[in-house]
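Appendix B, example 12.
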Amino acid sequence: MSRPTVAQLRAFLALAEHLHFRDAAAALRMSQPALSGAVAALEETLNARLVERTTRRVLLTPAGERVARRAERVLGELDRLVEEVRAAGGPLVGPLRLGVIPTVAPYLLPVVLPRLAEEFPDLELTVHEEQTDAIIAELVAGRLDVVVFAPPSPVSGVTELTLYDEDFVLVAPRSYELPGVLPRTALNDLDVILLNEGHCLRDQALDVCRQVGARAAAATYATSLATLVQLVSGGLGVTLVPETALPVETRRAPGLEAHRFAAPAPYRRIGLGHRASSPRAAEFEALAAVVRNAVEDDSATDVRVRGRGE
């Protein structure tokens, strides 16, 4: 009897999730014709029509809904099988799919990747950069093994390991002539500009503002920290920058001054997340330890990037 292949099931499950051939193909990093062919081959194998194609979107047939539910369980078990075998082969050996949020990736990866290559030469690492909701969804779906993000997780079933805490620093044009150390209430008199919606850093900055009754500027200006700091350099307001990003981003923008907050300074926590059901928990503890050590040893990292528990 002919049976579906893993590739066919993964293609169909992606289509069932996105209900759009182009988006499903992009999620799997394959061409749209290849995905369409895999779904068609699955329909032929099962001798059933699984999707209803319209001019704008895709709908699942009743048979397609049943196959999607079953495929998710089958692929989940296969992923767990692979994880168990890898865990038995030694710590951090073979493929590891890592997700990182954009406000961490450019600053942490250059510090951590050389250490990982040195300590785990047999690790085959791939990195996916995306906002928190997206990488957590990929993690839960089994398409990522572990993620670096700002806890807490928006969904349950994710184990979180603290990596480090880092202070927020106020970045303003030098012409503002603000004191070097600021009380949080200074935000009440400043126009704070933020990242677009969807970035957890935006939500964290808003929380800092709300704590002192300050309001952010009405317009949202940027999709990246780099652009945000450039806009501050252009005189459009001030912003809050996490400690690890400060050396990189302020070096690129002229006429800026960094102002630290009086204790207790606002901060964010960065953590490592993995599925609570993963058999590789011990490996991820080892990975978290490497990240912590790399951050603490990095000469470019300020002392206000605090280790776990400080």
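Residues 8 and 42 are 6 Å apart (CA to CA). The mean pLDDT is 88.
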